[in-house]
Design goal:
Rossmann fold, 6 helices, 24% helix, globular
Amino acid sequence: MEDKIREGDDVLLYLDKRRSYLVKVERDKKLHTHKGFLDLTELIGKEFGTRIHSSKGVEFIAFRPTIRDYVFKISRRTQIIYPKDIALIVFFSGIRPGSRVVEGGTGTGALAAALANYVKPSGRVYSYEIREEFIETAAKNLQRIGVINYVELKKGDLAEKIEEKDVDAVILDLATPWLVVPHAYNALKGSGIFISFSPTIDQVVKTTEALLKNGFAGVETFESLFRGMQIEKGRTRPETLMTGHTGYITFARKATV
């Protein structure tokens, strides 16, 4: 990975924790902000992490974007899964370089990007989506993030079938995940992992019942709550606003006969 910023690279221009800008570095391109404009040409050849000043003398920092940055900044046509949930999903899935993963509900491609980042360079994410316009948006996002070569975008309904066999994990962000459970069982390796993200507890109950009926074991459901801290000498305390309920994560493993 290059340490120097090249023309065509994405950078996260960081002002403070509330204001940052994901931009592509191009020669003679300027980014206009309420703190003045920044000449992006100045970044070419500099190290990631370099400081740059706007026309008003305000300091920004040019960071290398992380998956978290892309998730919050990329083009969205659907509700994204928050990084706090993506982190648990990736951790619980047990995926690693070389893993083969089926994803249901591509959306903007945020979760697919995170999964691809872990299975590369020899693994593969097979991401199913029923809406063509979402597939087009996801393809652009995955291309920009740099993981499109590790994701196969497929138009299809997982409630009808999963084409892949002997996969390591099936990960769903769908309205009716319980309909996919039998197909997930057939697609997974022995001890393969099923994960479903659902906003409502009714979805969780139906999915859990289907998992138990279809040969899965170790079924668990979690909710992740995320609260930042305001750090200031003499006034340190939890932030007033927090990212509370976003959804439930249901986890299970395939038990063979």
